[in-house]
Structures are given as C-alpha cells and as structure tokens.
C-alpha cells in the first residue's frame, strides 16, 4: 500500500468523489436513507479526502462549531489506519481554526477508535438511521 495522504477537499470540485465514498459506506453498506445522508451542512463544512496515490478512499467533514461527521473509509481500505490519518488531519485543522472542543456522533462499534484519539463518550446510546450511536467529545489542550 502506498502511503495515504489526506487533503482538504472542495465540496464543488471533489463532489463526485465525496459522494461516491459516502454513498458506498453509508447508503449502500449501512442502509442510511439518502435524505438523511445529504444536508445543508455539506455546503459550509470543511471536507477532507484520504487518498491512496490519486484514488480517494476516505472522507470526513468538519463544521464551524467543531462537529466532525461523515467519517467514512471504503471497505477494502479499513484496518489500514486510513481512518486514523483522516481523523488526525481533521483534528489538526480544528485546532488550527481555534476549535478547542470537537464533537462527533459515533457508531457504538467505533467508540474505541475515537477514544484512542482523545474523545470520550458523553451520552447514552441512541439510534440514528437504525444504528446505535453515542455522542463523543474531545477537548484540545
């Protein structure tokens, strides 16, 4: 595997790739209804693309209030630290923007991954799109 690079994406220019990854992971794999996947926040968010060579394999977004979401890595690249590289880039950008608290809504099976990055669970479990989730918070030091 080549080294994975993460860059800030442009919602307009990179739209097809961002949509392809999120549709594969959330809509096709996890059966999230399309109307829940796409929202007005996409226009305002800072988007990230993880690439192996020139091929986009993961994405995430950061909102102005420090909320991180839509973290997705294509199935064939999971377990290869792509999510880790993606999240480290998002957290670095959040801190660069002075966002001292970052929040996210995590699927319960992924909480250990986010805990390794400094997040802690701050809610009870709840269902979102039929999938168990928890809210998580990270404070920058």
Structural summary, described in words:
The protein is α+β, with helices and mostly antiparallel strands and 141 residues long. It has a domain at 4-99: Gcn5-related N-acetyltransferase (GNAT) (Aminopeptidase, 3-Layer(aba) Sandwich), CATH 3.40.630. The protein is 31% helix and 35% strand. The protein has five helices and eight strands; from the N terminus they run βαααβββαβαβββ. It has helices spanning 15-29, 34-37, 41-44, 82-96, 111-116, and strands at residues 4-9, 46-52, 55-62, 67-73, 101-107, 120-121, 126-128, 131-139. Strands 1, 2, 3, 4, 5, 6, 7 and 8 form an eight-stranded mixed sheet that branches. Strand 7 (126-128) and strand 8 (131-139) form a beta hairpin. The termini are far apart. The mean pLDDT is 95.
Low-pLDDT runs: none
Spatial gap, N to C terminus: 33 Å
Largest sheet: 8 strands, mixed
* Outline type: globular
Mean pLDDT: 95
The count of helical stretches stands at: 5
Strand runs, count: 8
Strand content: 25-35%
Task: Report the top-level CATH class of the domain at 4-99.
Answer: Alpha Beta
| Fourth-level CATH superfamily of the domain at 4-99 | Gcn5-related N-acetyltransferase (GNAT)
Topology-level CATH name of the domain at 4-99 = Aminopeptidase
| CATH architectural group of the domain at 4-99 | 3-Layer(aba) Sandwich
Give helix and strand order, one letter per element, not per position. Answer: EHHHEEEHEHEEE
Question: How would you classify the helix and strand content by structural class?
Answer: alpha+beta
Determine Rg (CA atoms, Å): 14 Å
Helical proportion, percent range? 25-40%
């Amino acid at each position: 595997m080549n080294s994975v690079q993460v860059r800030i994406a442009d919602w307009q220019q990179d739209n097809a790739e961002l949509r392809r990854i999120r549709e594969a992971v959330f809509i096709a794999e996890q059966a999230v209804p399309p109307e829940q996947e796409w929202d007005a926040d996409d226009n305002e968010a800072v988007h990230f693309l993880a690439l192996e060579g020139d091929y986009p394999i993961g994405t995430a977004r950061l909102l102005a209030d420090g909320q991180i979401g839509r973290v997705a890595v294509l199935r064939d690249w999971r377990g290869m630290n792509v999510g880790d590289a993606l999240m480290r880039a998002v957290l670095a950008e959040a801190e660069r923007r002075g966002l001292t608290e970052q929040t996210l809504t995590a699927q319960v099976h992924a909480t250990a991954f986010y805990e390794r990055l400094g997040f802690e669970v701050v809610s009870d479990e709840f269902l979102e799109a039929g999938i168990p989730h928890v809210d998580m918070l990270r404070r920058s030091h």
